[in-house]
Amino acid sequence: MATETKNLHRKGESFIPTHCSYCGMQCGMNIRVDDATGNVVGIEPRYEWPVNQGRLCPKGVTAYQQVEHPDRILRPLIKRNGKFIEASWEEAYDLIERKFKEIATKYGKDALGVYGGVSMTNEKCYLVGKYARVALGTKHIDYNGRYCMSSAAGGFNATLGMDRGSTLPWPDLLHSDCFFLAGSNTAECHPTSITWFWRGRDRGAKLIVADPRETPTARIADVHLDLKPGTDSALANGIAHILIKEGYVDNEYVAQRVNGFEDLEKMVERFTPEYTSRLTGVAQEKIIKAAHMYGEAEKSVVMFARGVEQQRKGVDNVGSYTNLALIRGQIGKFASGVATFTGQGNGQGGREHGQKADLLPGYRKLTEPKAVQYISQVWGIDPAEMPGPGVSAYEMLDSIHQGTVRAMHVICSNPAVSSPNAQHVWKALEKLEFLVVNDFFLSETAEFADVVLPTTTWAEDEGTTTNTEGRVIKINQIRKPAGESKPDWQILSEIAARMDRGKHFEYENAEQIFNELRVASKGGKADYYGITYEKIEKQQGVFWPCPDLDHPGTPYVYQDSFPTPDGKANLRVVDWQEAGEIQSKEFPEILTTGRVVFHYLSGNQTRRIDFLMEKCPEPYAEMHPEMASKYNLQDGEEVELETRRAKMKLKVRLTKAIRKDTVFVPYHWGKELSINQLTNPCLDPVSRMPEFKVCAVRLRKS
Ligand SMILES: Nc1nc2c(c(=O)[nH]1)N[C@H]1C(S)=C(S)[C@@H](COP(=O)(O)OP(=O)(O)OC[C@H]3O[C@@H](n4cnc5c(=O)[nH]c(N)nc54)[C@H](O)[C@@H]3O)O[C@H]1N2
Ligand SMILES: Nc1nc2c(c(=O)[nH]1)N[C@H]1C(S)=C(S)[C@@H](COP(=O)(O)OP(=O)(O)OC[C@H]3O[C@@H](n4cnc5c(=O)[nH]c(N)nc54)[C@H](O)[C@@H]3O)O[C@H]1N2
Ligand code: SF4
Ligand SMILES: [Mo]
């Protein structure tokens, strides 16, 4: 446990420093604990923490209310005759052992699937990968980050040679001259970041926002590029065209550090402002103004999020925007570069250490024999036993329909709400012969389960996460686990023992797992070997890569070269392509989905917090009054939205802050309120990211 400090404001209380349970900002906060009961009673921001400097958002200030919440699952649940009955851990484990062994014997080990998540610490995420491959022996493992960071990962790997979400530490933003934000609603989704832009603007920095909606983020922009959903690579190519034509290219940087400039120059030749405007729907003057603003800035940062990534061409979009920073010579320098906003709390670390279908710890590839050899030795198994690469999250759920995966263990995710084409996914979950879910609140996915295992919340265990900057930080244990709940690492280790693999999972605490992870990541791209719990505490976090104990960590990556075979970055030269589904006579409008400030992801955590539900109780269809009048709809009336997959009813919310051809619906609700019933499971060919951000929809007054 971390050092406690007495709360000077309230007698009988202590403060324990930790970080928020929600987004990738991982804001620093102190949890208030009642000394007499040991219960969590409140939260206060940490002023000394460099990323949020005393600020928290509405989710952050209420995060503590999860810990003592009456909805917590306190004992294992087993479904009998369609109803959950409380059971002992032994009973639950007996059943899991019997079913997993039966199914593996009958259909092979690959019939077992593991579906992980990155609201967990690095220690737990690492162990989920090891559990799938060593305890269950299956190749079928993937995780919810597939729907989140996979296109950023694919784009950065291809252009920069490595997948670290940010090339610079956040406090640098204070010194940047221009921010180019694409598909990020920072004000609602990474609220404590927006102040970095406000403070920048106070000293004259410019803000450019590319978003089909005039979000609270776009409202403060110097230029708002209100593009049609699905046209990002066209917009980025159009900006590159102007930068090249008007002499904004850093020729020296490009000559020394970048491949593919001539090809890019040739390809973007046709992306004149006129052509770009026609494709994207953004006025030519705005495109030109944005290009000049970005081109003239000495220190600029291109930043993006799911708006550009959750598309069939998410990887291309990431590459096309990264091109801008590369031709301007911005990457690897102070207060400039490129960054994607990490979504979930440990969206960065959780994708580095082997939860992904094709990756082993430290970003090692399962397809590389040397990597398999090394990790097998760390895990104490024969390399021949290591399962090969599996398939992506949506494909794994889909494969249940083919009988490929027959049992599944979902750990820290709610795919019944978060997956595209949700009704198809519900049928798959129903079809499973056996489903185990680890969660602390009964989720829509857990309702399909045969066994639900109660886990601890983030406040009841310790470990590390890696924030949006790439800074590895420490989550501290605040109180003892509620009821009979256990940390995920302990549950997985105990099931491993039941699967006769206990000797590979002998851990007494999270730190032992971290020490194994350090060794497993050693020599990989995401090298954590030099990071220890003490060092994190001493240095306010440690940026990876950190290859040895004397190494201070790496706040700035790519200062001298890129981790590619020739040390140079590769421009992504891609023409623009249509979205997977485009408007037609039958489905004439565009549907896009995303978030609101008051809810988090599938909503399983935030729909239980009174304050947040009062602020935003249900989903709605946000549209322009001109679109509404076409369908004779008024504010507050019910509209039926229908896509090729399903239809549902929602209340209309009118706003002029959205394109006239686009409907926006937040996705934080399940069952009949789930907009994912309508979304398109069309996948990016590289990242296997579904196209949550664009599909064709029709409206009917209901
Ligand atoms: N309040 C809140 N905060 C969160 C979360 C949450 O659920 N709630 N979740 C966290 C997680 S896991 C994530 S991944 C992040 C997500 O953070 P963001 O990516 O910022 O959030 P989204 O609302 O998904 O999408 C951002 C914007 O993309 C725009 N957009 C839609 N289509 C397009 C397009 O084709 N091109 C462009 N350029 N923009 C488009 C939308 O209008 C939206 O404003 O937030 C994190 N923070
Ligand atoms: N239409 C549409 N769909 C989307 C998106 C979109 O923009 N539009 N965005 C996608 C994105 S970016 C994301 S990240 C996904 C998220 O999708 P999900 O992963 O399904 O969403 P969460 O609500 O985070 O689910 C996490 C679950 O784990 C539980 N949990 C939290 N911490 C722990 C823990 O430590 N251990 C265990 N065992 N359980 C824990 C929570 O209670 C919750 O039930 O949704 C995706 N789906
Ligand atoms: S910005 Fe993210 S990390 Fe910070 S308080 Fe809000 S949800 Fe938590
Ligand atoms: Mo996400």
UniProtKB/TrEMBL annotation:
SUPFAM superfamilies (UniProt xref) = ADC-like (SSF50692), Formate dehydrogenase/DMSO reductase, domains 1-3 (SSF53706)
CDD domains in the record: MopB_CT_Fdh-Nap-like
Q: Which GO terms describe its molecular function?
A: 4 iron, 4 sulfur cluster binding; formate dehydrogenase (NAD+) activity; metal ion binding; molybdopterin cofactor binding; NADH dehydrogenase activity
Co-factor requirement: [4Fe-4S] cluster; [2Fe-2S] cluster; Mo-bis(molybdopterin guanine dinucleotide)
Origin superkingdom: Bacteria
Query: Which keywords label this protein?
Result: 4Fe-4S, Iron, Iron-sulfur, Metal-binding
Q: Which PROSITE patterns match?
A: 4FE4S_MOW_BIS_MGD (PS51669), MOLYBDOPTERIN_PROK_1 (PS00551), MOLYBDOPTERIN_PROK_2 (PS00490)
Q: Where is the 4Fe-4S Mo/W bis-MGD-type domain?
A: 13-71
According to its UniProt record, what is one Pfam family this protein matches? Molydop_binding
Keyword Isomerase appears in the UniProt entry = no
Gene Ontology annotations for the cellular component aspect, listed alphabetically: membrane
What the entry lists under InterPro entries is as follows:
Asp_de-COase-like_dom_sf (IPR009010), Formate_DH_asu (IPR006478), MoPterin_dinucl-bd_dom (IPR006657), Mopterin_OxRdtase (IPR006656), Mopterin_OxRdtase_4Fe-4S_dom (IPR006963), Mopterin_OxRdtase_prok_CS (IPR006655), MopterinOxRdtase_cofactor_BS (IPR027467), Prok_molybdopt-oxidoreductase (IPR050123)
Keyword 4Fe-4S listed? The answer is yes
The GO biological-process annotations, alphabetized, read as: formate metabolic process; respiratory electron transport chain
Record's protein name: Assimilatory nitrate reductase catalytic subunit
Q: Which organism is it from?
A: Aneurinibacillus migulanus
Q: What is the phylogenetic placement of the source species in the record? A: Bacteria, Bacillati, Bacillota, Bacilli, Bacillales
